[in-house]
What does this fold into?
Amino acid sequence: MMKIINMVVNGKPAELAVEEGESLTDTLRNRLGLTSVKKGCEVGECGACTVLIDGVAKNSCIYLSVWADGHSILTVEGLRTEDCELHPIQKAFVEEAAIQCGFCTPGLVLTGVELVNSGKKFNREELREQISGHLCRCTGYENILNALERVVGKNS
Amino acid sequence: MYDIIHTFKASSVNDVLELLSSNSDAMLVAGGTDVMIRMRERKLRQASLISLLDIPDLKTISLREDGAIVIGAGACFTEISENTIVLEKIPMLAHACRQVGSPQIRNIATIGGNICNGAVSADSVPSLYALDAELELWGKDGSRLVPIRKFHTGPGQTVLQKDRELLTAIIIPLSSYAHHGGCYIKFGQRNAMEISTLGCAVNVSLTGDKKHIEKAAIAFGVAAPVPMRCAKVESLLIGAEINEEMFFTVRENILEGLKPRDSWRASLELRRQLIREMSVRALKQAIINAGGSLQ
Ligand SMILES: Cc1cc2nc3c(=O)[nH]c(=O)nc-3n(C[C@H](O)[C@H](O)[C@H](O)COP(=O)(O)OP(=O)(O)OC[C@H]3O[C@@H](n4cnc5c(N)ncnc54)[C@H](O)[C@@H]3O)c2cc1C
Ligand code: FES
Ligand code: FES
It folds into this structure.
């Protein structure tokens, strides 16, 4: 059955009808065109579908859209500022060449944004733990850690 | 698309009980990190789900007047592992909660779901066994308290009456944590995103001179079809002097009552060795955490 839900997506209110069995990944991609949200494993293991729900990183593939009713969602599309500046995490990913195919990148960037918003600083071991919910098959993680260290590292 | 017929959002415990009684095939879902996976695997079909995500009362963690720590069943692992009461009084549980899955999983997976799912690999459960936690279950006629040690009845089976009850809180009595030290060790193939091959939790109190064990609780996940406490070793440890001989006794007797399996994840022989080794390591760390020394 379809249900009407109200969310705030990337700062803008969105009212839409969704199937009750629809994942938030599908709603964001197919109904709102937010294709930065990737579909990888669809069982909560790879992190490609990560979005921030009320500021907290969650796997949207195992989250029903009807649960998002009344909540606010952030995807990478919502990071763009009015003058089209990149977020500091995105800049660091570019500077450190922390991207190859890019499939894991939106999820990792959002985890990075969550870490920035926490106001805390992390050492490399802690950052490793913080990104353990993201699989990257290309970069070997070192450049990703370098990028995160630039922004939320203990010495940044 | 998930094979879902109806979804309901409960706003209170009473609401949950109402929804359960008026929808006979409905099941509860908290973080969904077990339920949604079962749906993906098509082990669960045509589901009607009652979501517990929007019941704030189920998320509170508090210290009761009698010193008991009360953890709402809907608290997620991130909330528990960062909670000051838990960190200060039962750090073993905070540590165990940090062993689950990944940050994104811990941001939504609940301790209530971990317990009620009934899996023997549930990372929060050995510590709760070692802490003699009590579970508060609510049904139409009120609540009942079940010691967690009586909760599991078989693989994936519990005493929870799924069609009419929910778990509301996990209660850890003062006598389980005051002047105690604890340690949880999880063994897996890798550090993150790994289901436990074996989990061992030890909770000890020492005598005044800190040279003897007063009382020790040792609990295992994945060492038998259900989580287990090691009654034999626990009785041998009462009053025991902390020395190498004592650890030898633990190693020699710990397997009694346990039934480790043989599987692709780990052979029976490896599991036996892990049980012997992890029980001693966890006991040693728990003794240190209780203020004792190993000489
Ligand atoms: C990628 C991934 C990694 C994982 N890693 C681990 C790990 O390392 N360690 C580990 O222990 N687990 C792990 N899990 C399993 C899972 O995350 C945990 O068991 C989690 O605690 C389940 O909680 P939930 O809130 O998501 O439960 P749900 O899926 O919502 O529910 C699980 C079961 O409990 C019932 N239930 C939930 N809440 C209540 C309640 N209050 N009262 C009565 N019944 C209730 C539901 O009806 C259902 O049967 C992992 C899962 C995934 C997807
Ligand atoms: S697609 Fe969601 S975690 Fe892999
Ligand atoms: S850059 Fe290809 S998966 Fe990470």
Summary: Chain A has two domains: 2-75, 88-152.
